[in-house]
Amino acid sequence: MEILMFEDSGKMLSEVALSSSSTDTLINLIDFRTGTSYTSFKQNNCFKHALALIPYPGQCDRIGLIISAQLDKSLLHIYSFQKDQVHLKFISPEKIIALAVSNKGAFCAGGTDNGKIYIWEISTGTLCKVFDAHYKKISVIKFTSDDSALISGSEDAGVNVWLLSSLLDDSVDESPSPFYTWSEHSLPITDIWCGIGSFNTARIVTSSLDHTCKLWDLSTGYLLTTFIFPTAITCIIVDPAERMFFGGGSNNLIYQVYLYRRRESSNYNAFGEEMSSVGGAGSIEDISSIDDEKGNLFKGHNSAITALALSYDASLLLAGSKDGTLMIWDISSKQMIKKFSLHKGPITNLFTFLKPPDLISSTSNLSNKIMIQPIQLFQRNTLQRSYKDNFDELHDLQRSKQSLLQFQVDDNSSTLESQISSLQSELLRVHNQYQRVKGLHDEMYQEIVNNFMANRREIENQKKGE
Question: Which residue ranges contain the repeat WD (predicted)?
């Protein structure tokens, strides 16, 4: 399926693949069906799972920006499709090593080396929450498809499920508790996949260096099935219909695992066969018996598999390996149809999505007419910490809130009019106080940033002088 979508302008959009490596400074964007190279974004160096796509708000199928957390600095880089250089740079509170953006483009979550998770609101840049999520380094973060929960995996072998509503609740001061804690893995978590559907219907697949992948029911938190492999699984991808999943192994092989199997019907109906789910109730499925005869292996890579992705129609499997090679596989025939040498080292991040309409190489005339998706500077402090020197103003706001809650409707019309007039005056005062506090915060933050950058330039000039 070459043509995927029509725009109002009549332009036809196809798919693109975006990849990055931890050993070079490029993010490559190609048409993986034709082999056309569109562009390479420069000045990037990020970990596995430290690059994410930011969709336009409410448009999950239209990607507007790319965000990556730098490997050696406390910096977040933002890239647009209208230039190959960094569009914006954000200074993060500490070095981020895992990133995830919600499917609707509302929130960005970042995990750190010491097990903390930061959550920002993308439209405002507000740092909504900082909390300790794991004992060791965060290895991967994912949002569920309905953005109701955040799932984190760590090198402590644990997987935690966090309700986003509780994480964003400002009325709760203490550290949040995970809704589920899954500790059945015995070695570090390598990847997490979240199924399609709401919280009550979705399934989750996790992979680990302990040679297993586990299938979970999100509504109950129960472990459904454990799949045992002959090698460590470094990355996973599930087809959109959730009929099967693919696991990339450290032994250079890709395993295709079916989640349903055919069984003979006992009713002698016209179809003769019916499908039943594999595993369930915590059962164990041994995948070590998969071989070439069953046609469930993809063989051809010369090094360990590091990243997987699927085409829009799930007919093609994209696999990146440790030697920087990207191979395109036809799933039905298990044949490798294209091969690209994109990077000098391991492909750590791999995505497929519809080609952006403002992509510079093919729509240079259009790029000047399409506005770059707006994004605000990510704050380094939470709202409460930013206002710690302005407690009087905050207390006034709280008292105003309490006075509004104490509003009582009186049968006497004159009393009611008086209360309405009083409330209008109170709301106006609260609004003015809020604007004043916000201005103080912005001024304080800008001064801190300016001082930091000035000191940094001074240190760099001293080094150059030496």
Answer: 131-162, 204-226, 298-339
